[in-house]
Design brief:
With 211 residues, this protein is mainly α. It contains 9 helices and no strands. The model has no long low-confidence stretch (mean pLDDT 89). It comes from Streptomyces doebereineriae.
């Protein structure tokens, strides 16, 4: 779960813990089935909180599930920040992001199932993951690394391909996830205007070691 400054007193800590438990329960449900029809009672029981606590934090199940998706996307973005902090080349950031996403289907299956089921609806929202991707695309365009003309269109292409990769990892676990990610990363870099030979090389650079 994404980290934030700890609450300053006991009441706020308990309140934050309850909210976090509800969001975790919603994330689990989204990852397991994608079904948002679970009752508030069932969600509260899964979160191990009182039924009445729900309305202290959320006005509806829709609001809760929306918060759960945003929470997952922020965790996804933070994992990229931590792993890719030393990379300045926008093209390498894009390629590494694809390859890490493929691996996270195994290491963080719940998170990636949420992304798989609900990511498309957030492709142009203002969540942390989208802001990071748009930032990297704009840096690449400003520097001439990418030749795409419209960041929003480039984001659609990048995000749609990434979500397709996540779907592929779960639908076809028999395929080599790393190889699939490398090949897709190379294709996306070429689509963004990176010369073919360079796209091939960048997509295969060693990934940074895990912290």
């Amino acid at each position: 779960m994404p980290t934030s400054a700890p609450p300053s007193n006991r009441f706020e800590r308990r309140r934050a813990e309850t909210r976090g438990a509800l969001i975790r329960a919603a994330r689990q449900i989204l990852a397991e089935t994608g079904d948002t029809g679970a009752s508030i009672q069932a969600i509260a029981e899964r979160a191990d909180v009182g039924f009445g606590s729900f309305y202290n934090h959320f006005e509806s199940k829709t609001e809760l599930f929306e918060a759960a998706v945003v929470d997952a996307l922020e965790e996804f973005g933070q994992s990229f920040d931590e792993r890719l902090a030393g990379i300045d080349d926008p093209a390498e950031l894009v390629a590494a992001g694809f390859r890490l996403s493929a691996r996270m289907a195994d290491s963080h299956p719940e998170l990636m199932q949420v992304l798989r089921r609900r990511g498309l609806g957030h492709l142009h929202s203002d969540n942390g993951l989208v802001r990071r991707a748009l930032r990297d695309l704009e840096v690449g365009m400003a520097s001439g690394r990418f030749t795409a003309l419209d960041p929003a269109v480039a984001l659609s292409a990048l995000g749609g391909t990434l979500l397709s990769l996540v779907e592929l990892r779960f639908a076809r676990p028999d395929l080599d996830g790393d190889e699939s990610a490398v090949n897709l990363a190379e294709m996306v870099l070429r689509m963004l205007g990176v010369p073919p030979d360079e796209a091939h090389e960048v997509a295969r650079r060693p990934l940074p070691d895990a912290a």
